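Slide 14.
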Amino acid sequence: MLLAVFSDIHGNRQAFEACLKVARAKGAERFVLLGDFVGYGADPEWVVDTAMELVAQGAVAVRGNHDQAVNSSTETMNAEAQIAIEWTRGRLDAAQRRFLAELPMLVEDSDRLFVHSEASSPQRWHYVRSTADAAKSLISTPAHVTFCGHIHRPALYSMSVTAKMTSFVPKTDVPVQLLRGRQWLAVLGSVGQPRDGDPSASFVLFDTVSCQITYCRAPYDIASAAGRIRENGLPPWLADRLSQGR
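Slide 15: predicted structure.
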């Protein structure tokens, strides 16, 4: 089965639509959503409704820290993110908020694990910034492949049976074979707010039979997404950063 895995959509309708279109054109058979459906972007209602529809059709979805913040006052964020969350609270209806609140922190599916931040302590929202961070996540699960997001920058880590770590930044549209003799941590880029210098929306395709992973990019109408942010009075930097990919 070909999985399309998305993370950190952040209320960006234009980016999410573009990724769904590209993934379907490439033959995606099932969708996985790694959280942070809301925050930053100006179309949280559409994004959450679309996620709800996909889950009803068999998609996997987990909770991100921005999703949790919608229903919790204990999540701490920077000033701009907090402004966006408070604005988002006023846009979502009870059913949409309940959907976010009831999402699991992680999902185990065969020899795969899906989580927003990382597997060792999902509720702490740690970022995977190094091989040490990746190793901590990998040793906490027997899964062959763990998929996570949260940091908005693509990376791929692996650990051998002797705990030797490797890491690299995968190239777009170049399949990587995830060998069975190692454990892997696939860190996704962001659909709605990439921070790796490439403004195109980012997602992953994974073939469950061949164990090949492919990091993909989808150009989208950045001007429209940025315009929506400005129209709704959200912090201008949230619009400006989209064209910069940071």
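Speaker note: DSSP finds eight helices and twelve strands in the chain.
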